[in-house]
Amino acid sequence: SNIVISGTGLFTPPHTISNDELVAAFNQYVDKFNADNAAAIEAGEVEALSHSSSEFIEKASGIKSRYAMYKDGIVNPDIMHPVFPMSEEGRTPEIVQMGVAAAKDAMAQAGKTAEDIDMVIVSSTFRQRDYPGMSVEIQRDLGIKGFAYDMGIACSSATFGIINAFTALKAGTAKCVLFVNPEFTTPGLDFKDRDSHFIFGDVATAAILEPEENAKPENAFRILDTKQQTEFSDNIRSDSSYADYCFDSLPANRYAFKQRGRKVFKELLPLVTNFIGEQLQENSIAAEEMKRMWLHQANINMNNFAVKKLLGRMPTELEAPVVLDEFANTASSGSVIAFHKYKDDFVSGDRGLICSFGAGYSIGSLLVEKV
Ligand code: CO8
Q1: CA nearest to 107, candidates 8, 4, 223, 5
Q2: Which ligand 1 atom lies nearest to the CA of residue 299?
Q3: H or E stretch covering 356
Q4: Any residues with CB less than 8 A from the CB of 343 and at least 6 apart, and which?
Q5: Is 329 inside any structural domain?
Q6: What is the CATH number of the domain that holds 245?
Q7: Atom 46 (ligand 1): residue with closest C-alpha?
């Protein structure tokens, strides 16, 4: 039978940080660093740091603001990271809190209760502990029977997770899947790094997948086709590891997201446009026949270039909606946020594409049709 996404959910964290607020903290940090190191800078032993700018951020990326679970530490030039209690026995990790909230939203939209669901997939870039699985804690907190597992492949965690749910339903290993996608990215960023301090925000998304005959049609989207591709690149990389305590001296920002942004832009763009072009061809669908492309949200210029290549013209706002301005890059969640916010105007038979691309490199895509 056909498999549908019968509902989606979104959890928006409590705090917003505008570019101006982020840049003000960063520039105060830079001024203090340069003053504290004036003699070494003068002697050529230390490199002076440069200011960040809101204009650069918006022009280079399309980002105007981001959400954060914890704001105070990030915008304090003496701290420059989120401050929150450590995960330990008896304390619910943020990833679980965020995931549960998004899951409840998706379950409400699909009209499902815990009893209806028999499988939970939690797919995200980070795990707040190695085990027991975040997914199993989310499953317990929602009162779901059956089984749950964690998975992730950075930027494509969401699309690959939804595709796993789809294949499990196709194979009959599950009857109704809750997909959860909590992206608690802010602890993974080096807020002292000018090149990347503005890129990410926190969010969680979720979705319910099930056979079409069991689903309420109102919000249901039939999955017509899925496609995945990976090709190794370490142009986007983080080296943090469970084994870090074994090493005597660790670089201070070893945990942090690092990228060669220009290279990523140049290498990923042709991979993505070829990939989407192939998928459309394999399904005998012309790009113009698609009402919408819910694309990965890393960079507005990259999305515009990609759609321009496919359509032969610039997309309208509704052909390739942007949520980057409000949410920033949310690792793997961007395309699902776009889908969640921009799908209510679809009528039966309208088609669209949910597509992620990024670290790995990884690309994941689902061609969907409104039931
Ligand atoms: N303020 C002012 N100036 C700046 C700043 C700043 N904040 N940052 C850099 N500059 C300067 C640079 O130093 C440079 O100066 P110069 O020309 O003198 O050398 C100039 O501005 C131009 O810099 P860039 O060439 O770096 O600028 P770009 O126009 O290339 O824009 C971007 C940088 C925005 C990073 C852009 O390259 C980009 O978005 N590329 C695509 C990257 C991409 O898609 N990455 C995928 C992201 S990964 C992902 O989505 C999930 C990964 C896992 C999640 C991890 C969560 C923490």
Answers
A1: 8
A2: 39
A3: strand 351-358
A4: 8, 219, 221, 292, 294, 352, 370
A5: yes
A6: 3.40.47.10
A7: 358
Residues 6+ apart with CB under 8 A from 138: 96, 99, 100, 103, 120, 122, 148, 180
Residue having the nearest C-alpha atom to atom 35 of ligand 1: 261
Instruction: Answer whether the bond into residue 361 is a cis peptide, omega within 30°.
Output: yes
Q: Residues 268, 290: contact at Cβ < 8 Å?
A: no
Whether residue 125 lies inside any domain: the answer is no
- Could you give the number of structural domains in the chain? 1
Cα–chain-centroid distance for residue 189?
A: 14
Query: Does any domain span residue 297?
Result: yes
Q: Is residue 278 part of a domain?
A: yes
pLDDT tens digits, residue range 274-286? 999 999 999 999 9
The ligand 1 site (C-beta within 6 Å) comprises 52-53, 56-57, 60-61, 125, 154-155, 185, 188-189, 194-195, 198, 200, 236, 257, 259, 261-262, 264-265, 298-299, 302, 329, 331, 358-359
CA of 196 to the centre of ligand 1 (A): 6
Using the structure block, give the residue that is written with the tokens 């499953």: 139
Residue nearest atom 23 in ligand 1 by C-alpha distance: 195
Q: Beta strand 177-183 with 203-211: parallel, antiparallel or unpaired?
A: antiparallel
- Write out pLDDT tens, residues 220-260: 999 999 999 999 999 999 999 999 999 999 988 899 999 99
Residue with tokens 């995200």: 124
Show the domain range for 343: 222-370
> Which one-letter DSSP state was computed for residue 46?
S
Quickly state the pLDDT bin for 358 (edges 50, 70, 90): very high
Catalytic residue positions? 155
Name which of 146, 139, 208 is nearest 178 in CA terms: 208
How many whole angstroms from 179 Cα to the centroid of ligand 1? 31
ipTM: 0.93
Q: Is the dihedral of CA 204, 210, 216, 221 positive or negative?
A: positive
Minimum CA distance residue for ligand 1 atom 21: 56
Going along 234-350, which residue ranges are E strands? 236-237, 258-259, 292-295
